[in-house]
Write a structure and sequence with these properties.
Helices cover about 20% and strands about 35% of the residues. It is elongated, with a radius of gyration of 18 Å. The protein is built from three helices and seven strands. By secondary structure, it is α+β, with helices and mostly antiparallel strands.
């Protein structure tokens, strides 16, 4: 008897899935700017981290909860494209979402916008590690289901 192949895949097998999007308003403080009066380039990676936290919250979890479960998500790659400058007192919006790259990697996409114009865009890639062994592990199915719904 031949067994029929199943066409359904478990979420851990499907890469390219994306999470909910989250947005965060942010008014640029003077401390974020450089001598030229624009946001210092490295601060965009901090902005990416801020929205990454909000995406997790929108998905129903937090870094604190993930780490308490013995999982770490270190950044192994970061990229930022700068399109336009932001300045002191600009009202920005940070927009972010996750993409499942593999069972052990996620990509966090981020955009920094002003009046819907994208000022900077980029991503960070995170590997899923065991806090105990510091070795890669598959994203647990409960967490996978919360971040990558449907």
């Amino acid at each position: 008897m031949t067994r029929a192949a199943s066409s359904s895949k478990t979420p851990a097998q499907v890469s390219g899935q994306t999470s909910l999007r989250a947005a965060l308003p942010y008014r640029v403080p003077y401390a974020d700017t450089d001598q030229m009066g624009v946001v210092y380039y490295a601060n965009y990676l901090v902005y990416f981290e801020r929205v990454r936290n909000e995406v997790l919250r929108a998905c129903g979890c937090t870094y604190k909860e993930i780490e308490a479960a013995g999982i770490l998500l270190p950044v192994i790659e970061a990229h930022c494209d700068y399109h336009q400058a932001a300045a002191y007192d600009d009202l920005l919006e940070f927009v972010g979402w996750f993409e499942l790259v593999s069972p052990v990697r996620m990509k966090s996409h981020s955009e920094v916008r002003r009046n819907n114009a994208v000022l900077a865009s980029g991503y960070t890639v995170h590997v899923v590690l065991s806090a105990k062994t510091r070795k890669p592990l598959r994203l647990p199915s409960d967490l996978l289901g919360r971040i990558f719904k449907g």
